[in-house]
Amino acid sequence: MRYLPLTPDDRRAMLARIGAQDVDALFRDVPKPALAPLSVFNLPDTQGEMEVERALSKLAASNVAAGAAPFFCGAGAYKHHVPSAVDHLIQRSEFLTSYTPYQPEIAQGTLQYLFEFQSQVALLTGMEVANASLYDGSTATAEAVLMAQRITKRGKAILSGGLHPHYAETVETVAGLFGPMTRSAVTPGSAEDIIALIDEDTACVVVQSPDVFGLIRNLRPIADAAHAKGALLIAVVTEVVSLGLLEPPGAQGADIVAAEGQSIGNGLNFGGPYVGLFAAREKFLRQMPGRLCGETVDAEGRRGYVLTLSTREQHIRREKATSNICTNSGLCTLAFTIHLSLLGEEGLTRLARINHAKASALADRLAALPGVEVVTPAFFNEFTVRLPKPAAPVVEALAAKSVIAGVPVSRLLPHDKTVEKLLILAATETNTDDDFAALSSALNGALA
Amino acid sequence: MRYLPLTPDDRRAMLARIGAQDVDALFRDVPKPALAPLSVFNLPDTQGEMEVERALSKLAASNVAAGAAPFFCGAGAYKHHVPSAVDHLIQRSEFLTSYTPYQPEIAQGTLQYLFEFQSQVALLTGMEVANASLYDGSTATAEAVLMAQRITKRGKAILSGGLHPHYAETVETVAGLFGPMTRSAVTPGSAEDIIALIDEDTACVVVQSPDVFGLIRNLRPIADAAHAKGALLIAVVTEVVSLGLLEPPGAQGADIVAAEGQSIGNGLNFGGPYVGLFAAREKFLRQMPGRLCGETVDAEGRRGYVLTLSTREQHIRREKATSNICTNSGLCTLAFTIHLSLLGEEGLTRLARINHAKASALADRLAALPGVEVVTPAFFNEFTVRLPKPAAPVVEALAAKSVIAGVPVSRLLPHDKTVEKLLILAATETNTDDDFAALSSALNGALA
Amino acid sequence: MSMNNQGRPTSSGEAFPASIATISGDRGLDHEEPLIFELGHGAAGVDLPDVDVADARLGGQRRKGAIGLPGLSEPEVIRHYVRLSRMNYAIDAGLYPLGSCTMKHNPRLNEKMARLPGFGDLHPLAPQSTTQGALELISQLMTWLTGLTGMPAVAMSPKAGAHGELCGLLAIRAAIAARGKNRKRILVPESAHGTNPATAAFAGFTVDEVPAKPNGHVDAGALKAKLGPDVAAIMLTNPNTCGLFEGEVKEIADAVHAAGAYFYCDGANFNAIAGKVRPGDLGVDAMHINLHKTFSTPHGGGGPGAGPVVLSERLAAYAPIPLLVADGKGLRLIEDMTAAPDGTKPFGRMCAFHGQMGMFVRALTYMLSHGRDGVRQASEDAVLSANYILASLKDVMSAPFGDGPCMHEALFDDAFLEGTGVTTLDFAKAMIDEGYHPMTMYFPLVVHGAMLIEPTESESKASLDRFIHVLHTLASEARAKKTERFAGAPHLAPRRRLDETAAARKPVLRWKPEALKQAAE
Amino acid sequence: MSMNNQGRPTSSGEAFPASIATISGDRGLDHEEPLIFELGHGAAGVDLPDVDVADARLGGQRRKGAIGLPGLSEPEVIRHYVRLSRMNYAIDAGLYPLGSCTMKHNPRLNEKMARLPGFGDLHPLAPQSTTQGALELISQLMTWLTGLTGMPAVAMSPKAGAHGELCGLLAIRAAIAARGKNRKRILVPESAHGTNPATAAFAGFTVDEVPAKPNGHVDAGALKAKLGPDVAAIMLTNPNTCGLFEGEVKEIADAVHAAGAYFYCDGANFNAIAGKVRPGDLGVDAMHINLHKTFSTPHGGGGPGAGPVVLSERLAAYAPIPLLVADGKGLRLIEDMTAAPDGTKPFGRMCAFHGQMGMFVRALTYMLSHGRDGVRQASEDAVLSANYILASLKDVMSAPFGDGPCMHEALFDDAFLEGTGVTTLDFAKAMIDEGYHPMTMYFPLVVHGAMLIEPTESESKASLDRFIHVLHTLASEARAKKTERFAGAPHLAPRRRLDETAAARKPVLRWKPEALKQAAE
Ligand SMILES: Cc1ncc(COP(=O)(O)O)c(C=O)c1O
Ligand SMILES: Cc1ncc(COP(=O)(O)O)c(C=O)c1O
Question: How far, in Å, from the CA of D307 to the mean position of ligand 2?
Answer without folding.
Answer: 9
